[in-house]
Structure prediction request, 373 residues.
Amino acid sequence: MRRDSRFLAPDYVRRIVPYRPGRPTDLLCSCSNLDELCLLASNENPYGSSARAIEAASTCLGKAHLYPDGGGYQLRTELAAALGVAPEAVALGNGSAELVDMLCKTFVTDGQCVVMSRYGFVQYRLSAQAVNAEIVDVAPFAGSMVDDLATMAETANARQARIVFIANPNNPTGTYVTREQLDGYFAAIDPRILTVIDQAYFEYAGEADYPDVVDDLKAGRNVVVLRTFSKIHGLAALRIGYGVGSPDLWAQLECVRLPFNTSAIAQVAGQAALADGAHVERCRRLNLEERTYLGAEFDRRGISYLPSIANFLMVDLHMPAKQTFEQLLQRGVLVRPLDGYGLSTCHRITVGTRVQNERLLMAIDRLSPVHDE
Prediction:
């Protein structure tokens, strides 16, 4: 049957390669004849949610027939107090990815430029493509894979970019830019260009030179900071993230925000998670221990990986990622191949519990040599 062209999306939409989430774990288990998968593909917190957050979410289910607070007043107020900003400087999203989408819809029009890292979070590209932006990706420094902020600023200035997206720590590399590097970037970038710094893994970063970008916002820099409850807080299934920025900027995003974009269950769970500092500290400590353990074991095996300050490692097994992914899956270990980034032999692997990490290492040890097809 001939397709009716009246119902075709614009070319720039049809060119988008949709985000591909991992296959359902139940289906993978049944296909692989496994009882349980070791889930190391999505940077989830293997230690789960705060018990306080689970209790708050469970209690809220009794009011599931009522609409949530559309503005998320209570959660925004508590986040603002924790961050030392006004509540009007905080916005909530259905995950921080929704805020990326809203920023592009609000501030980028047809053909305007958006700058990002070549190996940055894929949502930046998808949201920019959806508004037909000109996308310019900048290669990181060779070897270290740290974002080249000087070139990003130079490129953004030359192209009169509307937005620059920077993930810090970066996903999928786990690398980060320092306070000194970020200060140099802000000294170089045209202040009319909006810089969006995604700190989804902020709570895992303990390095002394790692910058808290809320400080840059307080200093008057044209920046938005994105964070999430999906990672260290373990609320990935509830989809709740937040941004910190100028109240004037958020007022403009209200024009494109969907009503009730965050659920009441997610909001109350976020409040409880925010108050449970002991859970966050425990997860941070265990992640550091296990990341160090995995690094030492990879070193012992001669496996290449990038140093990371997040809860995952980018690992190069020096074999085609599609085939090594399938081999690991057959042994009950699910990782994220990075061939879609052009990193054809690399995987992003979540730092799991000791039991999960030992299972991963056993599966890697049993890999059979494979070659490009």
Remarks:
- The longest strand covers residues 223-228.
- The domain at 51-276 is CATH 3.40.640.10 (Aspartate Aminotransferase; domain 2).
